[in-house]
Amino acid sequence: RTTLIIAHRLSTVIDADEILVLVDGSVAERGRFGDLLAKGGVFAGMWRRQQEAAARSAVDELGRPAEAAE
After folding, report:
1. Would you say 29 and 22 are in contact if contact means Cβ atoms under 8 Å apart?
2. Which residues are 22's β-sheet partners?
3. What is the dihedral sign for C-alpha 57, 61, 63, 65?
4. What percent of the chain has pLDDT over 70?
């Protein structure tokens, strides 16, 4: 069975057998999640930016950054 998943949230494809990274309509990278991260290319950059954005938006119930709540 083949399933095509188009995802903006990269955590959705962590367990995919193969990930294709498209840039301007062309395949820029392809591989498994860990391999693409280790390569340090386009996918790794997107993953890093998503993780940084998630960390910035993490707040506790008082509106403080998550690390300030600890």
Report:
1. no
2. 27
3. negative
4. 83
